[in-house]
Automatic annotation (TrEMBL):
The encoding gene: sigX
Pfam families linked: Sigma70_r2, Sigma70_r4_2
Species for this entry: Aquibacillus koreensis
PANTHER family documented for this protein: RNA POLYMERASE ECF-TYPE SIGMA FACTO, RNA POLYMERASE SIGMA FACTOR SIGV
Name this protein carries in UniProt: RNA polymerase sigma factor
Chain ranges of the RNA polymerase sigma factor 70 region 4 type domain: 111-163
Keyword set includes Transcription regulation: yes
Domain of life of the native organism: Bacteria
Family: Belongs to the sigma-70 factor family. ECF subfamily.
Keywords from the named record: DNA-binding, Sigma factor, Transcription, Transcription regulation
Length: 189
């Protein structure tokens, strides 16, 4: 006899893995994050009230764990940055990681969309992934993110506009340097 957790795992693991993978773009980090999600699910399943579907509850947990991961990464990165003197040549450092193997087989247009998606805010990225990659309804997306339906619609509209602008201008993230380099070009560093 299957447990509730096994049912959730069987039904949603692939979609959950994809959702997190599109956010972090690293298979190992995705696996680590998904383990943390499942631990939180196991610990809190008995408190699940059924006010939303299991799917939206699960994806909401996944989103929060992923955001926590990014916060930890940012703190780590800031500690590392503090250790180095970036005054000379630091602006030349670029993140040139290729897209993971699983994504690399996609055609050039889709790769360009994914690179542009990385330039969107976390909220915009979450909405686009849930709505268009995971095929969530607007209501499911709102439940997952803990937002109103109008906020989802507004964020979706802005995300699509941002993606369209980035695609129209050919801004894909290749050869554009780091945030530090961008700030230096604008005279803010």
């Amino acid at each position: 006899m299957k447990t509730a957790f096994e049912d959730i795992y069987d039904q949603y693991h692939k979609d959950l893995f994809q959702f997190i993978f599109y956010m972090v773009k690293d298979k190992q980090q995705t696996e680590d994050i998904i383990q943390e999600v499942y631990i939180k699910v196991l610990k809190s399943y008995d408190t699940f009230k059924g006010e939303s579907s299991e799917k939206t509850w699960l994806f909401s947990i996944a989103r929060h764990v992923t955001i926590d991961f990014f916060r930890k990464q940012k703190r780590k990165r800031n500690r590392i940055i503090d250790l180095f003197d970036w005054s000379e040549k630091g602006f030349l450092i670029k993140d040139e990681h290729d897209l993971p193997e699983e994504v690399a087989v996609l055609n050039d247009e889709m790769q360009q969309v994914y690179r542009c998606l990385d330039k969107c805010t976390m909220d915009q990225k979450s909405v686009i992934i849930l709505r268009y990659i995971q095929s969530f309804s607007i209501e499911e997306t709102a439940d997952t993110l803990g937002w109103s339906i109008s906020k989802v619609k507004t964020t979706q509209h802005r995300a699509i506009k941002t993606l369209k602008d980035l695609l129209d201008t050919g801004t894909t993230g290749r050869g554009e340097g780091t945030e530090v380099e961008s700030q230096q070009r604008r005279g803010k560093a």
